[in-house]
Amino acid sequence: MEKSLVLVKPDAVARGLSGTIVSRLENTGLKLIALKMLHMSQALAERHYAPHKERPFFNNLIKFITSGPIVAAVFEGDNAVSTIRTAMGATDPAKADAGSIRRDFGLDIEHNAVHGSDSVQTAEHEISLFFGENELMNYVRK
Ligand code: IDP
Ligand code: MG
Questions:
Q1: Is the pTM of this model over 0.90?
Q2: How many CA atoms lie within 13 A of 15 on its CB side?
Q3: DSSP 94
Q4: Whole-number mean pLDDT of the chain?
Q5: CA of residue 36 relative to chain centroid, distance
Q6: What's residue 42's pLDDT?
Q7: Which of 45, 50, 53, 128 is 20 to 30 A (C-alpha) from 142?
Q8: Using CA atoms in the order 35, 41, 43, 47, what is the torsion angle rounded to 10 degrees?
Q9: Alpha carbon of 118 to ligand 2 centroid (Å)
């Protein structure tokens, strides 16, 4: 079954939006199978964002994502990756569709409230950075 990693970023946690964002994603019908709050280390941030190492915003991105606690979650279900990307909206909140999480809660292209994996393969890797196999729950979503 397809899975995706979601992070509620520090800007959104600080504004009391953790529950709202998790709730919006649960409302897509996907099954929440893992959830935790943590403060990402520099090392974890660099591993998670390694594909962006050469981009000009990389250092700021690492500073931002390690600036405060985040909420990490795994959702499972048919087309979990694309369902979550659609619910999140475009990277830049100003360009995100009306009703999307980033449009409603993102502050700017960097402080955009939420992360979601961009492919099934990326999701598998990202989930393994944040969760052990025994932290992924198995239940029937009704
Ligand atoms: P995504 O989060 O929509 O997949 P990516 O291109 O993978 O977007 O970028 C990862 C994260 O890096 C974004 O969510 C955002 O926080 C940050 N970011 C992306 N582009 C820019 C930029 O042009 N300036 C500053 N930060 C950026
Ligand atoms: Mg991305």
A1: yes
A2: 15
A3: G
A4: 98
A5: 12
A6: 98
A7: 128
A8: 30
A9: 6
